[in-house]
Write a structure and sequence with these properties.
Chain lengths: ~450, ~450
Amino acid sequence: MTVENIRFLISRELKAGTHPGDLLEQLEDLEMDQKVELIQQLSDQEAALLFQEMEDFEQAEIIRGLDRERAMTILTDMASDDAADLIGKLSPEETQEMLQLIDEEEPADFGNLLKYPEESAGGIMTTEFISLPADIPVEEAIDRLREIAPEAETIYYVYVVDQDGHLIGVLSLRDLIASTDGTILKTIMRRNVISVNAGLDQEEVARIVSKYDLLAVPVVDDQERLLGIITVDDVIDVMEQEATEDIYRLAGAGEVVDMELTEAPVSKVVRLRLPWLMISMVGGFISGSVIGGYESTLEAIVILAVFIPVIMDMGGNVGTQSSTIFVRGIATGEIDEAEVWPYFFREIRIGITLGLICGAIISIAAYFWQGNPYLGLVVGISMLATISVAALIGTLVPLLCSKINIDPAITAGPFVTTIKDVTGLMIYFVIATAFLQYLR
Amino acid sequence: MTVENIRFLISRELKAGTHPGDLLEQLEDLEMDQKVELIQQLSDQEAALLFQEMEDFEQAEIIRGLDRERAMTILTDMASDDAADLIGKLSPEETQEMLQLIDEEEPADFGNLLKYPEESAGGIMTTEFISLPADIPVEEAIDRLREIAPEAETIYYVYVVDQDGHLIGVLSLRDLIASTDGTILKTIMRRNVISVNAGLDQEEVARIVSKYDLLAVPVVDDQERLLGIITVDDVIDVMEQEATEDIYRLAGAGEVVDMELTEAPVSKVVRLRLPWLMISMVGGFISGSVIGGYESTLEAIVILAVFIPVIMDMGGNVGTQSSTIFVRGIATGEIDEAEVWPYFFREIRIGITLGLICGAIISIAAYFWQGNPYLGLVVGISMLATISVAALIGTLVPLLCSKINIDPAITAGPFVTTIKDVTGLMIYFVIATAFLQYLR
């Protein structure tokens, strides 16, 4: 289909009430310059609707291609948090240019939004909230809401501020609707407002919104002045993004923003995945040199090599289990960072239990497989020790990292794998060398 | 502290406006029967507030311990979806008993809720929604909202149904507030209502709410009759639960519901984690028997064993990366299940590229380490082949599973590890045996 045809189709569908998110698949086969042309040709409103549904990296490329006027229309039409995110993705010169475009139209809210890191409360908040003074009656508040409704990001919470902008109370639209006319806001507002500091990490923000079942949370500066709000739809995006980040880190798949790993070109994905593989390769060499160090043992009893995979696999598996459960527990707040030590000791008990069970099974299996009871003993004891140590390392390394504020998910990947492999192989060969005379 | 002291503390804090979720830590040191005693002693309202914040498994145990009257007060006070979840956790006899308790008070909404699987739209919906006829004016709608506000789960969406209960339109409270008095609902309601079928999986529900930025989504039966709604706070819980499930499955940490792995007793965790380790152990033996099959090659050149870990680690790592990115992409909807094949072929290109780079590096490293260029060649070619095959297997196995409706996250764990280990080791020893005369 030509751009012109698609433009026609999209206009028609939007008029018919189709959600713009469902129209994106029509654009899939278009090149980037065709997408720019399309956005350029649609009406102001249609362009803005479609543009807002696109992925961040696409938006950044398209905005670069649009002419000044269309770029400005779209940016001023976007929610301030989305626009700030987008501008933050451009080069410093481009950012400057865009800010000038916007400043002609809107006050400098953007400067505030760009001041905070992208993954902080200040970075994801929107400044389109509703604040009212404390001394007006309910019906006046509702009248004001009716006026502002089309502009604000959400009208379901109304924030009450004093004359210096300090946040002193909150009312839900539900509270307002349920109150009788004439009631003054001050008398019905809730005063223990749950708010977040602008510098707070977005993951913490998500945890708070989830814990208290909020539809939006207010963002304040160090003096408790109201700066903006974060709405629950943005929190959902944060949760998805943070879970994806953690999953990729746990798998050692790379440091990733958004959907880069599923959509980026091959060369980019290779660059993102390669560093972890290099670490893994160095780790493999270190583990190999442990085996090299026991060359004479291995030369005497070549069959010992047969158990290298099971020792490595089992240690690796138990360690990954321990790391993953710990990392996820910290991320969801199920494990309290202040009380990790009881959890750690429980994990060691679990490791030893698993080690005893697996060690017993494997020593019997090894005995029947190779017909040597001493070999069974060596493999069984090694398995017990390897699994116990793997559970210890798998918990301890991410635990220590979280104590010094390194994301534990990063360390649960190839680093821990190497430490587990090396300790497992050393345990195995030390024990095998000690029993060498019985194995011949 | 005694139960009596804690009861006093909790009453005071709740009166002071503290969120009940923040009071749970006061209960941490109590035994289960003390918690039952506490809930029994608090006032009706206080007991309900505190109880609702507790974890599912705790709720189930406490409700068993309470006397009939208190149990009934709490259950009827809970949102219908939460109460149904809780009742679903009890034994069939207990469920029957609880339903009788409730039926004395409330109509049989619960029967409906319990009819659907726990992880379906019908299983997580609440029946406390607001529906109105199409032919009333805005001000009447708002008046009705004011009356129902304290009962409903959310008042921010109002659903319009015909006389047979079919869902025909939706209005947000924002639409109502922004409209002038006298406007008839029919003329301003949106007719393309985004709804979900009661049988839909909760993960799909979360994806729809996230995609369209909804605060609630209506649940309908096969005849499009409105049954209930799912609110965004429940969607957030679903997302967290599904992400945790996927992460644990990817790590082979067990089939887990909620926080069992971080809080359950040691014996339970061992039972959950052990099956995956058994699979892993069998996998380790299979990999080991590959090595055993090339015993004569290994006897001739013992130093070949030194490269076993790096071959296993690298194949394992690339395969885990591929599986994880694919599984997460499917879970978040970034990879379209209908168009997986282009993604698959892209992944193979990535695998070959990674294999070429890592193969080149490792062949040089192996040459310098062991001083034999042929050994470098053998290890390098093995690495290229192992990595390419690992990327293929790491994507293909979960891909095929998703086609036949098995959760791909399950297969990304120990099964894929074994297949990757076996193929990697076979490739390595086949090539080494072929080059054997040059390696001596």
